[in-house]
Every structure is written in structure tokens, then in C-alpha cells.
Amino acid sequence: MIYVRLHPIRNRPAREIRAVPTKVELCKAEEVAEGSALRVEAEGLTVAVFNIEGQFYVTDDACTHGPGSLSEGYIDGDVIECNFHNGQFDIKTGEVVSPPCMIPVKTYPAKVEGGTVVIEVD
Ligand code: FES
Predict the structure, then answer these.
(1) Which of ligand 1's atoms lies nearest the C-alpha of 73?
(2) Which atom of ligand 1 is nearest to the CA of 87?
(3) Overall average pLDDT of the 40-50 stretch
(4) Whole-number Å distance between alpha carbons of 116 and 122
(5) Where do the DSSP E strands lie in the chain?
């Protein structure tokens, strides 16, 4: 039998628990040529790393509309066009640019540390 001890004070505010961001190393910056994307699996995530004019951006790799892989899509400036139904997202913000996508794609703030592209995940 398992006994659970209850807190004796009622109506006490719950303690706030904050997740500590976890740094995730994705790839070497040199692996992603300017104007291209690389699919990376790390720490349970599958993301697309984009190099847009020397700046790195990271989104989920999975299109929010279906089975498309954004790292295999077509880059036009700041826009990625899904390789499946040609929906489009803003690479920097994840916002939908063109249907049939309706749901923004998740983005992750990215930076380069010691030549490695890293993101922080909650
Ligand atoms: S799967 Fe990407 S637009 Fe449909």
C-alpha cells in the first residue's frame, strides 16, 4: 500500500516550477551552405537548420500541414516552400506565408557557438 502525505495548509499558492532551458548542439555551421537547409535529429527533436545570408534559423522539420520535410523544401529568400503541397512559411518567424498550411511552424532561437549551431529548448 502507498501512502501520500498531503500538505496541511489549504489554499496555499502552488510553487512555480520553471523549466531550465537545455542547450542542444545541432551541427557545425559549415555543414549548412548559405541558402540551404539541413535536417538534424538531436535530443528527440527533428529540426531544419537554415542558413540565410550567413544567419542561422531553426524550425521544426515537419510541415504543419502534412508529411512534408521543410529541410527538403525550396528556399526563396526568407521563405521555405514545403516539398509536398507547396505551402510556405517564413523561415525567421514560422508564420504561414501561403496555404494550404494554416498552422505556423515552431521556430527556435539559434546561435553559433564555437562554430556549432545551437538552440535552447525549454
Ligand atoms: S505537407 Fe507541407 S504543404 Fe502539405
Answers:
(1) 2
(2) 3
(3) 96
(4) 19
(5) 22-28, 36-42, 45-52, 55-60, 74-76, 79-81, 88-90, 96-98, 107-108, 110-113, 116-121
Residue 107 pLDDT grade (very low, low, confident, very high; cuts 50, 70, 90): very high
d(CA 86, ligand 1 centre) in Å? 6
> Over the stretch 63-79, which tens digit does the pLDDT of each residue have?
999 999 999 999 999 99
CATH class of 32-121: mainly beta
Residue in the block written with cell 522539420: 61
Under the banding of pLDDT at 50, 70 and 90, the label for residue 95 is: very high
Residue 106, SS3? Answer: coil
Testing ligand 1's pocket by substitution, the residue of 65, 70, 71, 81 carrying the most ligand atoms inside 8 A of its CB is 65
Three-state secondary-structure class, residue 49? strand
What is the pTM for the complete model shown?
0.84
